[in-house]
Amino acid sequence: MIVKNAAADLPECLASMQGAVDEIVVADTGSDDDSVPIARAAGAKTLSIPWESDYAKARNLSLAQVTADWVLMLDADERLDPSAREKLPALLANRGVAGYQVTIRNYVSDPTRKIWDRPSHPNDGSYEPSRPYAAYIDHENVRLFRRDPEIYFIGRVHETVGWRIKATGRRLGTANFCIHHFGMVRGEEILTRKILFYRDLGLRKIADSPQNAQAHLEVGIVEMENLQNPSAALPYFERACQLNERFGVAWFFAGKAQFALGQYAAAQRSLRNAETSGHATAAVAELAGDTNYNLGHYEAAADCYRRSRKRAPESAALESKLGLAEARTGNAASGLRRLRHAIEMCPGAADLYDRLITVQVWLGDLPAAAAEAERKLTAVAARPEDFLRAASIRAKLEQWGHAVDLLRRGLQAHPNSEQLRASLSKIETIVVPSAVVPAQKATPDGGVAPANSRAH
Distance between CA atoms of 330 and 323, rounded to whole angstroms? Predict the structure, then answer.
């Protein structure tokens, strides 16, 4: 392990290793908290190493202190799964393997969160410390490997020994245990500092290796996914694709940035390149569907969503998007069935309700849209705009008292919302006690303020 100011996490992390390892080496890069005393109290060998803005260099300095035959790497905000104690001996006995890809289970509070192009999965709470968090996202990294002078970390950031194992012609296996990661459920301020820190290291990594397509991809992902800046991200993705024309995941992210910038034709080309480069994932097909939908190519969008659902049949979002596309092609009955089924699959996802309400408004079924809009208010953490939409639909039905009640509920939940306050003031001027001022009935698509009907 390498640590800095990790006192809050270290006790649980170190406790998770007990009985699974023979020695613990903790390298400190300049803590001013109790990280080092905590590590020593747990029986770890500790050392101080300089921080030179290079994770691989720091890891390799700590790796040099290891005496065991095999190495397991963890970070302070991670926990080793209890099952590892029983599973490690058989893995280490495999003479034909030099290292193992280990699943890192990243817990998140937002079930719509993704890591790169990997979606989240509902958290079943089987690992007790994870129960407060709604979902998790799995990814793999080489965390268990033989101690060997030819196996060492590479990369100033997103460092790994995997490249060295492959470069030396040795074999990687897949471990049958996981590491639980809680770093993505820290406070926003901590996450923002970490993101900016990683971007700086990523830029230095590009300076170190300007022909490294992976390094360009990593910086692009920070700009795109973490900083929400597709215009800054796109040049990095495009450069990664130039450096490696078969880099499927880079083509996918280029398409994602182009989509976000409204460059739909370019996005379609990038997504085709992703597929032909072997990155035929559910996310690629889904984004191709979103692109076709926003171009008004609803049949093509439905085909893409169907292809994506074959790759990720458990996805409620894909079922919902397919329902939206089918409704727009004229198959309203099938579309509505899918939209409702998606909500049954994941009743806590706000965007699923938005798509169903949009279709109901578009079809002119305002009573059903009103009921669904109010159902959403109790099913998810409703925003001010959700109360506004529900009230707007009731107003279109000339149910003024009901609309007022919804706006008042919204203000109770969001007392600082000027939008809700202004809307309530406006509608109260036309509501008379025990009577309603007649109003001209609006057309189904007039001023109902449906959610953006775009797919993504």
Answer: 11
3-state secondary structure of 155: coil
Nearest to 394 by CA among 375, 372, 370: 370
Q: How many Cβ atoms sit within 10 Å of the Cβ of residue 429?
A: 8
For tokens 């705009």, name the residue: 385
Classify residue 203 as exposed, middle or buried by CB count within 10 Å of its CB (0-12, 13-18, 19+): middle
What Rg do the C-alpha atoms of the chain give, in angstroms?
26
Contacts of 447 (CB under 8 A, 6+ apart): 392, 396
In contact, 84 and 102? CB cutoff 8 Å:
no
Kindly write down the DSSP assignment for every residue of 425-443, as one continuous string: HHHHTTEETTEE---PPPP
Helix (H) or strand (E) holding 102: strand 99-108
Quote the tokens at residue 77: 């905000």
Alpha carbons 223 and 122: distance in angstroms, whole number: 27
Domain containing 402 equals 347-456
DSSP characters over 337-382: HHHHHHHHH-TT-HHHHHHHHHHHHHTT-HHHHHHHHHHHHHHTT-
Q: What is the mean pLDDT of residues 119-137?
A: 92
Domain with 452 in it: what CATH number?
1.25.40.10
**Partners of residue 375 on adjacent β-strands:** none
- 54: domain CATH number is 3.90.550.10
Q: For residue range 212-242, what is the model confidence (pLDDT) as tens digits? A: 999 999 999 999 988 999 999 999 999 999 9
pLDDT exceeds cutoff 50 at 23: yes
Structure tokens at 310: 């074959």
- With beta carbons less than 8 A apart as the criterion, state whether 105 and 74 touch: no
425: tokens are 């003031």
DSSP 224: I
72 is a domain residue: yes
Q: Where are the beta strands (DSSP E) in 147-281?
A: 172-181
Q: How many structural domains comprise the chain?
A: 2
pLDDT at 445: 36
Which residues have CB under 8 Å from 110's CB, separation 6+? 120, 134, 135
Closest by CA to 292, choosing from 320, 328, 257, is 328
